[in-house]
Amino acid sequence: MRPSSFFGSPDHGGEGQGRLGRLLRRPEPYTTFAFLYDALSLDWPVYASGRRAGIEALRLAPGDRVLDLGCGTGLNVRHLLRRIGPTGHVVALDSSPAMLRQAARRVRRRGWTNVTLLCADASTVDPAAWEPVDAALSTYVLSVIPDRAAAWQTMLRGTRAGGRIAVIDMQDPQGRWAVLRPLARWLCAVSGSDIHAYPWRLLEADLIDVHSAARRGGHIQIRVGTVPAPSGTIGSSP
Ligand SMILES: C[S@@+](CC[C@H](N)C(=O)[O-])C[C@H]1O[C@@H](n2cnc3c(N)ncnc32)[C@H](O)[C@@H]1O
User: Fold this and answer.
1) What are the pLDDT digits (tens) for 64-113?
2) Residue bearing the CA closest to ligand 1, atom 27
3) Is 191 in the pocket of ligand 1 (CB under 6 A)?
4) If I label 154, which of 71, 93, 110, 228 is the partner at 20 to 30 A Cα–Cα?
């Protein structure tokens, strides 16, 4: 696979009609506001804690190949590259050309040569588009995708047996943090995310050795597990 390439182009609507035209029509968050995503996504105060914890629990090693499903503007990439080094490789997939353009800018600015940007719908793409990876993650993505079970299968089938997968996503804040529910629900609604999707349950059903953690009063849920060997192969559970 070519490094730092950007291919495929699912039609999200609104592309090629100019930024003002898109703003005046019904806005699609990951097209209309892609250029503002990093500034508006509350990454530093809220969501970075989840991506860091999930990536830590992936237990990456130098040379690993990693799939970042729904990579957005590429906020995970530097954390991944710090662990996998120059001999590793990131396949960063997203269905929004506008978000991928921001990711491509980041890759170019940082001079990263071991990142492949892939424009594809996670719920329909054939995982044979890349060699099976050692690890995969989705941060704040599966709750956005209507057919999240199919997107989960893409992660599962695109990762080698014994590889690790992380799902980091959102739910209502719990306990004394419940006072922030209206804010969390509003943020999820404007970003097209279903706060009641609980997509980490897909991981819990299919993986072994599952690690669970939470951040920000339970609003951010982190699950990381290991892909079991297919049944009937040596080392698989009965
Ligand atoms: C909330 S953003 C998260 C971006 C990034 N993972 C992060 O942590 O900042 C959700 C991302 O999912 C992408 N997305 C939505 N539906 C998708 C699909 N069916 N296939 C691939 N990506 C999708 C959007 O384009 C957007 O970039």
Assistant:
1) 999 999 999 999 999 999 999 999 999 999 999 999 999 999 999 999 99
2) 72
3) yes
4) 110
How far apart, in Å, are the Cα atoms of 153 and each of 99, 122, 149? 23, 9, 6
pTM of the model: 0.87
The yes/no answer on whether domain 6-226 falls in CATH 3.40.50.150 is yes
- Choose which residue among 106, 126, 141, 170 to substitute to test ligand 1 binding: the one with the highest number of ligand atoms within 8 A of its C-beta: 141
Q: Does residue 77 have its Cβ closer than 6 Å to ligand 1?
A: no
CA distance 223 to 57: 9
Ligand 1 atom 8, closest CA: 139
Q: Is there an atom of ligand 1 within 6 Å of 95 CB? A: yes
Which of 15, 69, 144 to probe ligand 1 with, by most ligand atoms within 8 A of CB?
Answer: 144
Instruction: Please report, for the chain, the start and end positions of each structural domain, with discontinuous segments joined by +.
Output: 6-226
- The pLDDT tens digits of the residues spanning 102-156 come to 999 999 999 999 999 999 999 999 999 889 999 999 999 999 999 999 999 999 9
Name the residue at shortest CA distance from atom 13 of ligand 1: 70
Instruction: Specify whether the CB–CB gap between 169 and 140 falls below 8 A.
Output: yes
